[in-house]
Amino acid sequence: MYKLPKMPYAYNALEPAIDAKTMEIHHTKHHNAYVNNLNQALQKHPNLKVSLNEMLTDLTTVPEDIRTAVRNNGGGHYNHSLFWEILTPGGAKEPKGELLKAIEDSFGSYQEFKTQFETAAKTRFGSGWAWLLQTKDGLKVTSTANQDTPLNEGKPILALDVWEHAYYLNYQNRRPDYVEAFFSVINWDVVLEKFKQ
Ligand code: MN
Questions:
Q1: If exposure means fewest CB atoms within 10 Å of the residue's CB, which of 26, 59, 149, 160 is most exposed?
Q2: Superfamily assignment of 20-86 in CATH?
């Protein structure tokens, strides 16, 4: 049984970038529903011994009758858990040390990385996520649709939810403003820890 992770900070901790009501609904309703629906699907296969990470990395390891449910709800659980972590208040406001060096090696500069990430987030049509991935060929920016994870391409170290439920109360249709505000609340120390793991 998977459990909704406790939010490690107050719902209003990210204001004004992300408002408390959005955080509360996002965590207690949206993320919670992904966890419940994931558990419900997995109950059909009580002897399944594959970890969520393995399942999302290779969906063919998931029994066919629950594959779509795991993809959507397991993905939803994985993605949101990472999202809450990298938003933990405090920490470095820009990448430092070996992570900054890796960003410069892969993108040329932090500014160029930021531009590429923002473009990925703004141009993802409909619902989805923007990502910074650690791959065997260096760092990479990508985006996915719905709750798809990028685990088959690399290890996600930074995630941005661009579903309307993540910003609509405060930003309505202004996704670019939300994306810009997101950069003011990233905890780059947490991202660096994930990079080093
Ligand atoms: Mn979401």
A1: 59
A2: Fe,Mn superoxide dismutase (SOD) domain (1.10.287.990)
